[in-house]
Amino acid sequence: MTTQDSATHPASIAIVPPTGRSGTLLAGLGVVAFSLTFPSTVWGLESFGPWSLVTLRSLLAALIAGGVLLAGRVPVPDRRHWSGLAVVAGGVVVGFPLLTTLALQTSTSSHAAVVVGLLPLTTAVFSSLRTGTRPPRAFWIAALAGAAVVIAFTVQQSGGALSAGDLYLFGALLVCAAGYTEGGRLAAVMPGWQVIGWALILAAPLMVAGAAVALSFEPVRPTAHGIIGLVWVAVGSTFVGLYVWYRGMAEIGVPRASQLQLAQPLLTLVWSFLLLGEEVSAAAPLAAVAVLVCIAATQRSGARR
Description:
Blueprint: H1 3-8, H2 20-35, H3 37-44, H4 50-71, H5 82-103, H6 109-115, H7 119-131, H8 137-158, H9 166-186, H10 192-217, H11 224-252, H12 254-260, H13 264-276, H14 283-303
């Protein structure tokens, strides 16, 4: 195509390909947004029951996503993409929020954050099975080392015993890893905000029915913390956070992006201390340094793949 043709047809102008650095930054912003999810959920539970909070969270995010999709006149995805969008909806729109919210009724935000710190390794395994990606051995060594740090920190914090909510948290790990993997795959063929947007729209009818039932059984006690918590998990965690997260995964790959989440539990520990007043042990800084070293190793090995 000639220069004149490009000037006449703006839509055909070449787009500068994304860099690994921008993908890492976007995925990192997603991790920061996600790190506030558990403290915000604890705040939300001050005003809403667990089922009400999850359904209202998804509905509010779906309204935002629907408005953005309509404003952008985004066409409906091809039929072949809907099965993947259903996995995203089941994993990150319904499954993970519900299971973690139920867990946070009995677990502290800091404890839940450390258990869910196994998500990067779980996501890397799902991605390898789903996409056939084969990261180098150094990647897996660093990832397993990071997971070992997280497990050791969990055991140290809990005194060697798992809380009643841990079964919910381990279930949340599995469904979220599946949703992340499928969302990362879809983000390679459509913008990340459209992936989460259509997943939210797909789950909306179920959430409407769920909200109608939940609100009739669970009392609502509006407080400032409760409303702020609901708004953040809907807008910050569910829509904006997943948008930048999926876009980052599309640029640097699911395994590398997933390892950035090794920092998420430690960020959540900071927010839990600052926002909730939860006690954080002196082992946290040591674990933070060890986890960050593992992140650097996984990113380096991924770049050399």
